[in-house]
Amino acid sequence: MNIRQEMEKREKELLSPFAVCSADTKGRVLQEDECDIRTAFQRDRDRILHSKSFRRLKDKTQVFLAPQGDHYRNRLTHTLEVSQIARTIAKALSLNEDLVEAIALGHDLGHTPFGHAGERALNSLHPEGFTHTRQSLRVVDKLEKNGEGLNLTWEVRDGILNHKTSSHPATLEGQVVRFSDKIAYIHHDMDDAQRAGLITEDDIPVTLRMLLGYTTRERLNTFVHDLIENSRNSDRIRMSDEILEGLRSLRSIMFVSVYQNPLAKNEEKKAISMLTELYRYYMEEPHAMTEKYVRMIEKNEASKETVVCDYLSGMTDQFSMEKFRELFIPRAWEVY
């Protein structure tokens, strides 16, 4: 028996009957030989971690566009916080941590530059619409490894596609990530908003603080504990009605005070205008994109609109701004 088989055996013995064991995966689109050391979900986690799209998350906006400070979250640190929260919950519930981690690390790979402002821009431009959830799946299926894709397992792909609040992941591990994503962004966006001076603890109703906690750290602890307590020995992941309503109330406060704050909205308008101009340019000049994307159009692998969105959504904040300056901002005349 090799190491992988030993780990698969331990999963059968130790994990919850509601967990997905690695040996029971529904498999990959393209069949592969098994690794003698890593389970299927560990291999998926490693493929995502070593991908180019994962590394680009370090320069993609979470909430604050180009913040002046070293401690504001970006899309990569958000992803890592989601992963850690999800693993804590999975361990407590005896679920498959490797599956949870793979889904968490891959859930935002398709996110645009400038966060949800960029997503709204591409959604309004693409005739078929654009969402970062579908794009994240497209990244791992079609765009990574020069068009070969990562060939991930069905369970990881399902979790990536269905991590939004309105979706329904097929596995408990996917449901854990879905909740952890919401918990993470409400927690760290509140922390960043307080750092930016957009909101204070006094802006949160005292009844809500009495219920959830008086600091961001206390509230994170409340959410995680409540989720674990209400999901133990259950075939679904859930919070108590009271804490879930508290989470929604906190999210509503964040929308009013932060996500829809006029100071942030003014910068978002600039980002949307910039991506709109880039989209129009590459629709007219598709050969100006890199060879990988030009080849996709020439081989009819996807519509031109889809490929242009592939190219733009893969950009980091800085790269998209550099491209905009290169294409639309006049350069000073240089005499040699």
User: What is the CA–CA distance across the termini?
Assistant: 70 Å
Gross morphology is flat
Return the structural class: mainly alpha
Named CATH architecture:
Orthogonal Bundle
Q: How much strand content do the residues show?
A: under 5%
How many strands, which pairing sense, and closed or not: the largest β-sheet? none
Number of H/I helices: 16
Q: Report the mean per-residue pLDDT as an integer.
A: 94
- How many strand segments? 0
Order of helices and strands: HHHHHHHHHHHHHHHH
Describe the protein in words.
- The chain has 336 residues and is mostly helical.
- The chain has one domain: Hypothetical protein af1432 (Orthogonal Bundle).
- Helix content is 61%, strand content 0%.
- The chain has helices spanning 3-14, 40-49, 52-56, 75-92, 97-106, 115-125, 132-143, 154-161, 172-196, 206-212, 216-231, 241-259, 262-284, 291-298, 304-313, 317-328.
- α4 (75-92) packs across α9, α6 (115-125) packs across α13 (262-284) and α14 (291-298) packs antiparallel against α15 (304-313).
- The radius of gyration is 21 Å and the shape is flat.
- The N and C termini lie far apart (70 Å).
Question: Any key phrases for this structure?
Answer:
336 residues, mainly alpha, Hypothetical protein af1432, 61% helix, 0% strand
